[in-house]
Amino acid sequence: MKGIRLAVMSAMFVVAVCATGVFAEDIPTDKMQITDKATDPTKRQIQLQSKVSLVQHSEADDPKTNGASVHVWSESDDFCYILTADDTLWTDNGKVWKYKNSETRNQAQIADNKLQVKIRSGVTFTLADDAPQGTVNASVQFGPGGSRYCMHCTGTQVSTDDAKKFHGKFCDSAPCDAEPPGCLPTATTTTTTTTTTIP
Hints:
Layout (H helix, E strand, L loop, with lengths): L14 E3 L5 E4 L2 E7 L9 E6 L12 H4 L1 E6 L3 E7 L6 E3 L3 E5 L6 E5 L2 E6 L15 E8 L5 E7 L3 E4 L3 E7 L20 E6 L2
Parallel strand pairs: 2-12
Antiparallel strand pairs: 1-2, 3-4, 3-14, 4-10, 5-6, 5-11, 6-15, 7-8, 8-9, 9-10, 11-12, 13-14
């Protein structure tokens, strides 16, 4: 487990150590956006972004070797996407880990003060059949030993919540709702997506 670094935290900031021993951090969210097009599921997208000092390049666990996970869930949907370990898709210059897949157009990066994810292919999280979502959670982890970042958007921080778009903006740091198990980084060379529609 990574050493816990000292940081100045607001009263709403929550730090927890998962049962797996991974350091988990609840971070503010600059943007959480899910778009859906019922007539063309291939147009669904998920975007996550956080610019906060609690995000650090050093908290990633070599995703080129160990992969990364993106988990987005609500009361009605559970979507897991694995960014696999692949020398051709991951780069690191010592300051920024970047994932870019020109075929799927999926991207991710982690640097000091910045976490960004764009999933443009393979998204099975739906809005059209169960809007409004109300609350959406997301966790992102770069490598099995990397910090697991939690983002939580709800209430007045959600500007749009309908059958076509969920848009959370400047969401405060808060604990995620109970996370469904099974979405963890893996070194497999096959991209994996899973989804569950919750009754």
